[in-house]
Amino acid sequence: MSTLRPLLWTGRHLRVLDQTLLPHEVRWLDLGTVEEVWEAIRSMRVRGAPAIGIAAAFGLYLGLRDEDAQSFWARMEELIRYLGTARPTAVNLFWALERMRRRAEALRDRPVEEIQEALLAEALAIQAEDEAQNRRIGEHGLRLLRPHMRLLTHCNTGALATSAYGTALAPILLARERGWPLHVWACETRPYLQGSRLTAFELKEAGVSFAIIPDSAAAYLMQQHRVDAVIVGADRVTSRGDVANKIGTYGLAVLARAHGIPFYVAVPSSSIDFSLERGEDIPIEERPAEELTHFRGIPIAPEGSPVYNPAFDVTPARLVTAFITEEGILRPPFPKALSALRSKLGR
After folding, report:
1. Which of 35, 49, 69, 183 is the most buried (most CB within 10 A)?
2. Sign of CA dihedral 147, 132, 41, 317
3. Residue 324, in any domain of the structure
4. 303-338: string of b/e by CB count within 10 Å (b at 16+)?
5. Is the pTM above the cut of 0.90?
6. What's the CA dihedral at 89, 276, 236, 256 to 10 degrees?
7. Which residues of 256-283 are buried (b: 16+ CB within 10 A; e: fewer)?
8. Which residue in 35, 110, 36, 32 sits closest to 78, CA to CA?
9. What is the per-residue pLDDT for 2?
């Protein structure tokens, strides 16, 4: 299984792999300020819900490591709000920041230097726990696969979107590790092309059989009986099982249901927002118009064309066959299954 790690703590900086340049250039960036981390998240140099949460945790530490006791607490609240504006849909961002806040609050009576050290330790713990969770997602997800399956996936859910291993790609990479022949259809994932740029990069590196397809070809492949299952990740899952994921996911779920194909969502528990029930209440990020009207700076649409560019859509729980989590596979009814998971996690 791939051990690619797109986020590394150097002891002084957060080193991130600039995913906007892949697959043609591998460039690492050393981020030393909270503003640099915010920009990296917003510009999608760092992307994928788990990776965003990890980066935000380190960003909060970077913004607080030089604060004195007088300014520390006010600055912490300011930075939590600031980092939360980078990508509003991925719940891991807010989960990680809240976890950092709770760690600091538990030490409120301690010297500020001790709190700062604890925040760095917490960010490192979030990263390590995500890696372990992703490995377990892969192991549980493998139970749903069999040799020679043809799987369709959307966006990028491998190590590049997490701390290591990935979510929806984790069982695929584990199957490869065990010698199972599989084939993956990777949707290009317009307009940012995470599938053709990033998923293809990871599958090629891992030696997995794959082919990139236009997003619009998914229905034809299903009609031709060339897809055995769809497996995707998620940026946020509600308490009843509605799924916010990269734009185009809902359409794939509808198509899978129409063709009798299982639709699986691989997700760490940190991406489950137990505070929200309805998918309609998930904030959906809109991306800049230039992502649709330009390609690498070159105009591809008439100047001044109006644009609607949502980054995510919401798939209703009724279209999901099962969730693959680090704690096991969850099946309908999802409100009951997710409630049991919440009790188990103590959240």
Report:
1. 49
2. positive
3. yes
4. eeeeeebebbbbbbbebbbbbbbbbbbbeeebeebb
5. yes
6. -120
7. beeeebbbbbbbbbbbbbbebeebeebe
8. 35
9. 53
56 and 120 together in one domain: yes
The CATH number of whichever domain residue 198 belongs to comes to: 3.40.50.10470
- Which pair of structure tokens corresponds to residue 173? 């990479």
**Residue 282 has what pLDDT?**
96
Same structural domain, 206 and 155: yes
User: Based on the domain organization, do 246 and 322 belong to the same domain?
Assistant: yes
pLDDT reported for residue 347: 86
Residues 278, 180 share a domain:
yes
Residue 3 pLDDT level (bands cut at 50, 70, 90): low
> Residue 1 above 60 pLDDT?
no
d(CA 57, CA 162) in angstroms, rounded, equals 13
- Take residue 167 and report the two structure tokens written for it: 């979510």
The answer to whether 57 and 122 are in contact (CB under 8 A) is yes
Q: Are residues 197 and 220 located together in one domain of the fold?
A: yes
Q: Are strands 322-325 and 263-266 parallel, antiparallel or unpaired?
A: parallel
* Residue 56 near residue 127 (C-beta atoms within 8 A): no
Whether the predicted pLDDT of 236 surpasses 90? yes
- 114 near 106, Cβ under 8 Å? no
* Averaged pLDDT, 120-144: 96
Give the pLDDT mean for 313-340: 98
**What is the pLDDT, as a whole number, of residue 296?**
83
Active-site residue, from 66, 228, 235, 313: 235
Beta bridge partners of 16: 7, 29
Residues 192, 61 share a domain: no
Mean pLDDT, residues 198-225? 97
Six-digit token string for 249? 């996911």
Whether 68 and 156 share a structural domain: no
Does 30 qualify as catalytic in the annotation? no
Spatial distance between the Cα atoms of 128 and 141, rounded to a whole number of angstroms:
20
